[in-house]
Amino acid sequence: MRVVIIGGGVIGLVTAWRTAQRGARVTVVDPAPGGGAARVAAGMLAAVTELHYGEEALLALNLASARRYPEFTAELSAASGQETGYRTCGTLAVALDADDRAHLRELHALHRRCGLDSAWLTGRECRRLEPMLAPGVRGGLRVDGDHQVDPRRLAAALLTACERAGVDFVRQRAGRLTVTGDQAAGVALEDGTEVAADRVVLAAGSESGRLAGVPREVLPPVRPVKGQILRLRVPPVYAPFLSRTVRALVRGGHVYLVPRADGELVLGATSEEQGWDTTVTAGGVYELLRDAHELVPGITELPLVETLAGLRPGSPDNAPLLGPTALPGLYLATGHHRNGVLLAPVTGDALARVLTDGGLPGEIRPFSPRRFDRAAREDTAGESAAPRGAARENTAQRSHA
Ligand code: GLY
Prior knowledge:
Blueprint: E1 2-6, H1 10-21, E2 25-29, E3 44-45, H2 56-80, E4 91-95, H3 98-113, E5 119-122, H4 123-129, E6 139-143, E7 147-148, H5 151-164, E8 168-170, E9 174-180, E10 183-189, E11 194-196, E12 199-202, E13 223-233, E14 245-250, E15 253-259, E16 264-268, E17 270-271, H6 282-295, E18 304-314, E19 321-324, E20 330-334, H7 344-356, H8 373-382, E21 397-398
Parallel strand pairs: 1-2, 1-12, 2-8, 4-14, 12-20
Antiparallel strand pairs: 3-7, 4-6, 5-6, 9-10, 10-11, 13-16, 13-18, 14-15, 15-16, 17-21, 19-20
GO biological process, one term: thiamine diphosphate biosynthetic process
Keywords: Oxidoreductase, Thiamine biosynthesis
EC number: 1.4.3.19
């Protein structure tokens, strides 16, 4: 069984590793494996604090993946000899003004309805947990089960684990999907070389919707959702600056701070519908720093070491597209939007299984790419002018993440 995976980000790599472990010959096609959205991501494993109304099916998948993290990272570290930065530090979500507090109360009620573990704290209790928080914090939710991992370390460990498991890497861009008869047959590289395969997995993140050669009716409806993010450093003299992930609503704007054990502090993130633009803007950086400063005034003392923008692979219902498509031999592992790092373990396990023994694990059934087939057919019939993944109306807003 030969499997070719287009895309060597965290999702492509975890799928490659798990599939190679099940005995398949796996090739990953990517000019820079280990890059992608995970290079930018903060790595919150925020199944509970990032819950949104109407996303209960996604919640089940997110929780299933979060539960696998301890075993997954232990196995990955053993396989690669590298640490992933997995930290069971929990999360505190706080509110700055009365409206923010009302919003957070609603989230708490949703948690209770879904049977999730989260505890309401007063502002004073929040500051007792995290003394760097501003006196203006009005209340918060303590969620001890939402942890974090370092996505860059995770990607590096997956790359090594793949190499050790015998995965081949072709460091080139995929030019087009090759289709023979009614069957995906591999990929043609940009230099014209063809890589033949029995099964092809499209795991190219936000770019998954624009690979040439993919029949329109199976092209995944993913689009780029821009996120700007900052990295600061906590000098030892200020440590521990924060002891857990802190998320906040600051006058309606969402912001998060993710403190790593090695002193890195990640501050994110914007969420912008800007097409393929990855420019870091003065406005994006200003808003993140302004809100983070209101939340944790001491942040302005810290060295700012990196500003970056990445593209989340957004899907129409914010949930991933996982499993076989209507084109025999073509599988998808894309559309993970805000949850790619969180969903890596469950995606790798499920895709490896479906690729090697054909069984579709129950937990990914609600996320079949086929749920969009009808919309695609209607689109084709109407000859919609807008290509999938095209820039949408610019509705830049601060991340819900
Ligand atoms: N889940 C974090 C983000 O998408 O910004």
